[in-house]
């Protein structure tokens, strides 16, 4: 565990001081990510919103609360067995989509996080996340619901929690995605839920 803590400690100051793209001019805080240092699952979103920019933590607003419920439904949490990060580490103004050059400027940080954390599986939230991870222009509707390979790590995409808040009809397909994800997780890491259950029982 310690080696990944130290390696992450090396990445975070670089993110904090980053000025590779224009997003650094308007940010309050960088949002490197949060979670355990030896996660079974890495959750990757798009970028920070207003709540995240203010706190420096990922997924803390309404979408984050929904994400926590979605993860808990399959025995995952950011405090027991997950790490949560984003494609870009600074908030795009007015929550617009990050531009391709902004995603590109930030990509080495995410690659370093993935290499350091060595998750068993990756859950990508929404179109921006999966398109950047797979370098594709296909839409989320086409990419979700089945496994892709990211450098040898099984990767599944589902709808972003903010999309579920806007359109509750997407909640059922998102739940189907999570069940597929859980089934693979049970095969790859049968005791993955032990830390989560221990935490629930505290």
Q: How is this fold's topology laid out?
A:
Elements: H1 2-16, E1 34-35, E2 41-45, H2 50-55, H3 62-73, E3 82-86, H4 100-117, E4 121-125, H5 126-134, H6 140-143, E5 147-150, E6 153-158, H7 161-166, H8 171-188, H9 194-200
Q: Summarize the main sheet.
A: 6 strands, mixed
How far is the N terminus from the C terminus?
22 Å
Low-confidence stretches: none
Percentage beta strand: 5-15%
Query: Within the largest sheet, what's the order of strands?
Result: 1-3-2-4-6-5
Order of helices and strands: HEEHHEHEHHEEHHH
For the CA atoms, what is the radius of gyration? 16 Å
Structure in words:
The model has no long low-confidence stretch (mean pLDDT 95). The chain has nine helices and six strands. A six-stranded mixed β-sheet has the order 1-3-2-4-6-5, with helices on both faces. It has 202 residues and is an alpha/beta fold. The two termini are 22 Å apart. The longest helix has 18 residues, at 100-117. Helix 1 runs antiparallel to helix 4.
Structure described in brief:
With 202 residues, this protein is an alpha/beta fold. The chain has helices at 2-16, 50-55, 62-73, 100-117, 126-134, 140-143, 161-166, 171-188, 194-200, and strands at 34-35, 41-45, 82-86, 121-125, 147-150, 153-158.
Distinctive features:
202 residues, 9 helices, globular
């Amino acid at each position: 565990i310690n080696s990944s803590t130290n390696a992450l400690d090396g990445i975070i100051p670089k993110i904090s001081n980053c000025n590779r793209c224009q997003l650094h001019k308007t940010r309050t805080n960088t949002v490197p990510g949060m979670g355990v240092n030896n996660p079974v699952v890495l959750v990757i979103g798009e970028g920070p919103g207003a709540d995240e920019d203010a706190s420096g933590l990922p997924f803390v607003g309404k979408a984050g609360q929904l994400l926590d419920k979605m993860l808990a439904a399959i025995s995952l949490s950011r405090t027991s067995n997950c790490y949560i990060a984003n494609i870009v580490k600074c908030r795009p103004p007015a929550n617009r989509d990050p531009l391709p050059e902004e995603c590109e400027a930030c990509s080495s940080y995410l690659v370093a996080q993935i290499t350091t954390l060595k998750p068993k599986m990756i859950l990508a939230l929404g179109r921006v996340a999966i398109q950047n991870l797979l370098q594709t222009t296909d839409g989320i509707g086409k990419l979700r619901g089945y496994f892709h390979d990211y450098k040898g790590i099984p990767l599944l995409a589902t709808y972003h929690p903010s999309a579920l808040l806007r359109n509750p009809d997407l909640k059922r397909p998102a739940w189907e995605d999570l069940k597929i994800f859980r089934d693979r997780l049970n095969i790859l890491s049968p005791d993955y839920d032990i830390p989560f259950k221990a935490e629930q029982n505290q």
